[in-house]
Structure formats: structure tokens, C-alpha cells
Amino acid sequence: MLAWLCSRVRDWVVMTDELQYAKLATHIGETLSPLPTLRGAHVGAYAQLYPALIAPFYGTMSAPDAFRWAHVLNGIVFASATIPVYLLARHVDLPRPWALACAALSVATLWNLQAAFLMTEAAAYPAFAWAVLAIVRAVEAPSAAHDAVAVAGVAFAVLARTQFLSLGLVLVVAALVHRRHGHRLLWIATAAAVVVALVGGTRILGNYATTAHGFPFPWRAFEQAGAHLDVIGVGLFVLPLLVGGAWLVSRRTAFSITALTTIVVLTLETSSYDARFGGGLADIRSRYLFYIAPLLLIATACALRERRLNARALAAVTVFAAVTVLAHGFPRVAGLYVDAPHAVLNGVIRDSGGRAFVAVAFVVAALVLVRVPRRVRVAVVAVVVAAGCVSASALAWTRLLQSRSPSSRRVDAAPTVVLDWIDSVVPKNAHVGIVPFATNPSWGPNALLWWDAEFWNRTVDRAFVVGANWDYAPFPHTELRVDPQTGVVAGTEHAPEYVAVALDDSRLGLVGASVGVNYGIAILHMQLPYRVAWTSSGLDPDGWSVPGRVARVHVIGGGSAKVTYQDANGKATTICRRGDIALPDAQAGVEPATPLGPTAAGTRGVGVRLTGVAVRASCAG
Question: Could you state, in order of their start, the residue ranges of all structural domains in the chain?
Fold first, then answer.
């Protein structure tokens, strides 16, 4: 079922995350090298498990076909979390039917929506569950073999998602609390990890090194930590948080200690991130914390098997949840917010009374649970959680599949245009470099144009910038440096033989034979090293001259060129000159601020915009 739902997703939704993983997978598929590489450069993206899983598709198929088959695999891999969850449930002595129920519910939550995107969650969810299973076994029965498996499980989870470095701390703390003796191999591995951390510093986090800068736990991280946990509870329809939470805090088994430690560590980790870098549209990014859902479900099942609930523990957990949930406003979020799928419930919650309604719901649910007979309690929890999870998941998937991606295409609609058009006009094993240029006054349309060009074409594997002042993705790129005398571009002796350039690029004119044009982008077959016929200077990155700043076109070799420019009203003018050709710099209008990023705002005074340069033998005739 989940694989079928994922297969209905026909367009990207999350940029530049999906672009990164698609290109990492393409590199692995084509070279069989596990080293994380983007645009020809090694990067600090150490979570290579997911790219490796989809690499066979991206290494052998067209990008659109690979995209669709990767989604099918996403559903299968995400659903495979049922296996370790089932084994963990059986490990804590739950009967087979109860273990099957826990496993099924673990993939029926609304967070199964994360499998709809080319992102690490699809592989990270089962990897996390396997790691926790290994940790529980090592904590319960210390031995060199169990420690080795647990350490390997943590390493496996880290390969799925760098965030799970925190599971190393979980393993150490749980082992110390439950039974510290018999973990010789674990202590050796811990010492080695500490040495690596001291020597490597933040570099061991790769692209996530910035998360280690500054104090990790501002007061707001603690203030919001409980609300983060409450949000997961709301997504599970309250009861697993109360019943499972009460069971965990009242037991000292290997599972309860490991699960509780995991919940605390991941909650603080996520709350710290949101407090320092922002919680996005929903204030809380539950996609970083939903991994704890199976632990709460298993703990709930363990509690329901007992004749009575621990009333004191339930009361304590209920008070904690009812108080801490008041720190979260449950803001309305239109459509679907990928970082917080739980927000699809926020509208109903707000209409019902907001945070106060949730707090009261916690209290009422706890009172009901302690007063009804065990059989009724089991039935109520099973029905509420199962029906709630399935209905919430259906709501989230409906919103996704009925929406449009940032590209404006329907998420569930087959493409009506040829997306991999660049691949279709160059040889099969060719390499293409793109030279992004801001053709639109707004950053968004420019980014969408080049995102599509790179994402849907497997041959596009390099990016060049001019002046290092405009790119649409935080990935490696190479600056084009032109010799003004010869027009030769330095360092391009081994560059891709094909480049994709905007037809109206006002910064330079690469010399090459056009093999295809689409969406205002021309594909040029280049001679190596690259050479340009002309360059410009004094212009803004999108081609506008600025009042008071000298702007000109420099024709390589002093030849002639026909230069076309237009003013802010769209009036075009064409002139023909030799050598250095000056452009008007008097203010002729006002345009939006230079579109160098998504937050560009305001306006600027402009002169003219350079729209075309045609080098010719002379201006005569």
C-alpha cells in the first residue's frame, strides 16, 4: 500500500534536499564509488545509505524513471521497519498478535508520508529501529558480541542519518544505568569515539557542522522540549504518550531504560535544533523526532497487558504533557508542511480550542483510562490509535497528492513535458555543466528553472558561476575566470564538453555549437578549454546597469559586436561598436532588488538591462 502511494508522487517537493540525494545516488550508480560527491567535488554528506539504495536506478535509468522507481522502493524500505519493530516487541515478551499490531501501527502513522520524498527518512526509519533493537539486547545481556552488534547498529543508523550519532550516547547511558559490567568492548569503542571527536571536532558532522557551533541548549530548547514530545503524542492520538510514557517511567527494564533514554535524547536534540535554527512554519519539526513512535507504541502494549495502570506514573505523565503542551500554539499550516506532517491536524485542534483543548484531552483521557476495566481499556486504546493513525495518514497523503509542487506541477500528475530534455540532445554518457543565470526579476522562478534542469537530467553533473555571486543550491561550483586578452577560461581543459547557458546571459558569451534550446536555455558543444567571445563588467548579476556605475561590454580581441539592451519599460535598443562598448548608466526606472536569494526584498534604481551580444566581423552593412 505504501509503495503504491509513493509511486503516485511524480514531482519533486523538497529542494534542495531531493536534488542532493538524487545526485549522490547518480554518482554512486555511475562510478560505484561510495564517496559522497556532488558536481565533481567530495562533500560532507555522510548519510550515504539512502543514496546507495536508490543508486541502481539512477545509475541505469533516465532521471524521471529513476525518480519513480526510487519512490516505489521508498515505500518498501520504510515499511520494512515493521520487521525490527516486531522483533523488539517480541523481545519484550509481547504476544505475537500484539507485536504484529505494534509493527503495523508503526508504519501507519502520518509520518509515513516521509517516504514520499527522495530523502533519508525512508531508510533512516528502519535503520533506527534496528539500532534500538541491537542496543536493547546489548543493554539487557552484556557481552562482547552484543556490544559489537550494538555499535555496528549505531554506525548503520548514522549512515542512514547523521542525526543518529546521538544513539551512541543512548547506548552508553543505557548500559551505565542498567548494568555497567560486561561491556568492555563498548567502553573501548566509547574511548575511541571520544578521541575521534576531540581530534576531528565538528568536521565529523560533515554538512551538519554548523549545528555544533554555539551553546547547544538555550533556555528555549528546554522550554519547548516537552511540547516536541507532546506533538508526537498528538500525532499518535494521545494515548500512547500517556499510557506508554507512564509505563516507561515506572519500569527499570533494559527496554524501558533504552526507550526512555532514546526519547529524552532525541527530544532534546530536536528541540535544540528548532530553538537555534527555527521550527519552520509549524514551530516544531516533527520529522526529526517521529522515530520514537514505535517505542511509545510498544510501551503502550506492555502497559495494556498488565491488570492495572500505574496511576501515579500516569498522573505524572499526564500533568507533564498537559502543562508542557501549553508552550505550543498549534499554528494553522495550509496544505502540507514536509517538516511537520502532524500540522495537518492543527486546523481541527485550533477550531476545537487550541492548546487548551489538547491539555484537557490529556487529562480526560487519563481519567477515563484509569476508571474503565482492562478489556475496555485495551479496546479503546486499540481502536482510537488505529483509527486515528490511519485517518491522519490518509489526510496527509490526500493533501500531498492533491497539491502542486513548488514547480507548479501537480504532485500526482504524469509530466506533460519532456523533463530530461538535456539528456535527449547530448550523447548518452556525456557530461554537462550548467551556468545558472537570473533571467527573472524574482529568485524563485530562476531557482525553479535551474533546479529542474539539474534534477531531471542525469548528464548535468557540474555547475559554473560567474563572479561567485549567484547559485540556486548550496553545492560545490566552479567560478569561470576569463583571460580578457585571449578569452580562454582558466581550468577548463578537462571540463564537461557540453554546457547549458541562458540565452540572455549578460555576463559572458561562451563559444560553442548549439545542439538544443528549451526554456530559454541553450546547450552548447564546447571545445576545450572553454573560450568566450565577450564579457561584461559593471552590471548587476541579472544584467542591469546601476546608476553611477560604469558598465561596458568587452569584445575579446577588440572586434565588433551588436549589443541589445532594454530599459525598465521594455523598450529595446540595439547598437554596434568595437572593443569596449559602454552601456547607458543613467537611472531609467526601478526594478525589484537583485534576485540573489529567496529573501531578496525591496527595489533598486536601474539603467538598462543587457539582453544580447552578437559578435561580428564589423558594424558595416
Answer: 2-401, 421-616
